[in-house]
TrEMBL record:
Nucleotide-binding listed as a keyword: yes
Record EC number: 2.7.1.17
UniProt keyword Membrane present: no
Assigned GO CC terms: cytosol
Originating organism: Cotesia glomerata (Lepidopteran parasitic wasp)
Family: Belongs to the FGGY kinase family.
Residue ranges annotated for the Carbohydrate kinase FGGY C-terminal domain, each copy included: 294-480
Signal peptide: none
Name of the molecule in the record: Xylulose kinase
Keywords: ATP-binding, Carbohydrate metabolism, Kinase, Nucleotide-binding, Transferase, Xylose metabolism
Annotated function: Phosphorylates D-xylulose to produce D-xylulose 5-phosphate, a molecule that may play an important role in the regulation of glucose metabolism and lipogenesis.
Amino acid sequence: MGDSGPTYLGLDLSTQQLKAIVVDDQLKVLDEAYVQFDNDLPEFRTYGGVINKKESASVAVAPCLMWVKALDMLLDKLRVCGVDFAKVQGISGCAQQHGTVYWSKGSRELLRNLSPDKFLHQQLCNAFATNYSPIWMDSSTSAECEILEQTVGGPQNLAQITGSKAYERFSGPQIAKIWRTRPDAYANTERISLISSFVASLLVGDYAPIDYSDGSGMNLLDIRTKDWNDQLLEASGPDLRGKLGETVPSYTNLASISSYYVERFGFSDQCRVIAFTGDNPASLIGMRLGKGDLACSLGTSDTLFLWLDDPKTLPEGHVLCNPLDKDAYMTMLCFKNGSFTRERIRDSAAGGSWQIFNELLDSTPRGNFGNIALYFDAPEIIPALVGDHRFNKADDKISRYSSKEVEVRALIEGQFIAKRAYAEDFGFVIASNSRIIATGGASANKTMLQVLADVFNAPVYTTEVANSAVLGAAYLAKYALHRDKNNFQEITKYIPEPQLLCTPYSDAESIYKPMVARYRRIVAQLLKQNASS
Ligand SMILES: O=C(CO)[C@@H](O)[C@H](O)CF
């Protein structure tokens, strides 16, 4: 269909920015726009889209009104790009997972009666019981995690029910902390959204439901029944079921877009809003992950995920409901120290230049002369460690490396060796048909991806655009509207296959298989030292 055909809009509210992508009926990218929170909304004084509270490094929040303002700005940017909103047939989206938004009493009426003559943020400035939403980088809820695990008889049982043992960043512990520390705000809360369903609510002009996939990242949802677990709700806050509302499959066709967007931006009143989901489930969609593939998202946080037909209980990592098939699942492993850490070493070793960083990386041999290191700016999720830990070829812990080249390679090899160790723990087997599909900002760096291919001893592919989350959101919009006639493969058949970018060197397995074993020994030793200190 020429340029008169229907289009689909995908949104991604990530940590650092709000992104939009417009695709045509064959899912070809027509337009993209971004609102960078730090640069475009400096009045909110975020760093990387985040505010780390002074009193504690482990508290991480973001101003929800910043996200509201960003939506108006983003749609204005798309309009300036010449996007004809009247052709948008469906909108879906995704967002950073686990963060929670607390709508104050009466806000549903505000959403239902948005005036097209004013900005969203002018009308919603009093819509939130707390103006700062806890986000996934917060790790201040260890006490609440302990309570949730005790409620159901321990971490293994919690993982069996909800897909994960308790994690500080998960929404259940975060909601419980608000209830404990801000009882007034909790009492004044009419609805709690995830950040994904919060954005969908802005577009629908009413409270949008939480989807199964993003809801799996809360330590509250039973991933088999898809319903809230009442024991866990009671342990997280009174009347929580009423505040959370019902859950829906990620491909649910929610409603027509609010008249606010019809009158202010020219959307058709037939434009449908689809449920929003988490950024990682959306990436699984955007990469059209097949069974046997391993997806590696290299962004603010690094994330690995796989498609699963049946749920498993994992000691580490997460099992989520699958966004494309309500009876399937996906596994996910998150590493908090992703691009911020890579940028720190780029700044200290390569003067802030990726070109120099890559030259340094290319100038050292695979295996880095036996050096191996772990770098954690923030408390890492897996393993639960923080700080820099450098080791020489004799496994002696040292405070610094003599050369910048060694430091750069130690960072990248260390991050990828850790990923291989945990991917193998949750069942990934490197076979002849294995593919590593890389996405996220750093997947544009071929020098880094060569190390990824070597460490995993598997070919690395990349998808059409660096950020598959926002692409997956756009695919979800079309899939949701046409799934009754076509399956996902049919709907996405026009999309080019992921491109092969790097293949491993023949000596890679002989170098990195032993380094994975060394990594496990080093981490066990560091965790043991932590436990005894
Ligand atoms: O915490 C995470 C997933 O569990 C991260 O990938 C966030 O979704 C990043 F926004």
